[in-house]
Amino acid sequence: MRIKAGYFALAIFGALLLLKVTVQAAPSKGESLLNKGDSIAVYVDAEDFDAIKTAKKGAIVKLKVLENVVRSGEKLINKGDAVFATVTGRSHGGMYGGAGNANLTIDSTHSNAKSKVPLKGSLSIKGKSSTPKTIISVVLFPIGWLIKGGDIEFPEGKNVYKPVVAEDTPVYYQR
Questions:
Q1: Chain segment 114-127, per-residue pLDDT in tens
Q2: Count of beta carbons in the 10 Å neighbourhood of residue 32
Q3: What does each C-alpha distance from 41 to 66, 125, 147, 173 come to in angstroms?
Q4: How far is CA 80 from its chain centroid?
Q5: Cβ neighbours of 80 (radius 10 Å)
Q6: Does residue 105 contact residue 124 with C-beta atoms inside 8 Å?
Q7: How confident is the model at residue 83 (pLDDT cuts 50, 70, 90)?
């Protein structure tokens, strides 16, 4: 009898707890379509640039979405979301005054509901090559290998790129 009363009290206590807990519905998802050829503005910030500067060929680096992507009043991709790019070529400042460069292929981003959006685009960030250094290194051929070119530099004012959507993509978003 005592055990039954304990179970009964436990059941009452559990029921009271359940009444206090409110069930929240999961946010509903909507669906839209990004058409092949739609462009998305992407930028490189200082943090992303440092990752690009240290990356090797084949590494995946992150860029950021510049502005919200909106269709029919619904926000599909949030400003500041990550855009993934692959480093396809990377060289540091070389001998004889040659400039360093980094070539990237922009691959994809995600909607605010985490559906993948394939992108197609590329960008190149170059360092400074010095024509006077190059001329001097050619004239003074034996010591030209001592003269180094500049590595890549942060693209001040030129750090916005516009990759396009690679294929018609249904995009799910949070409402």
A1: 888 999 998 888 77
A2: 16
A3: 5, 17, 38, 19
A4: 8
A5: 12
A6: no
A7: very high
- Paired residues of 125 in beta bridges: 102
Q: What percent of the chain has pLDDT over 70?
A: 62
**Architecture of domain 27-174 in this structure:** Beta Barrel (2.40)
The pTM score is: 0.69
Cα(61)–Cα(49) distance, rounded to whole angstroms?
9
User: Which strand (E) or helix (H) includes residue 2?
Assistant: helix 2-20
Helix then strand then coil, % of the chain, to nearest 5: 25, 40, 35
**Strand pairing class (116-126; 164-165):** antiparallel
For residue 136 the two structure tokens come to 């001097």
Pairing of the two strands 60-65 and 164-165: unpaired
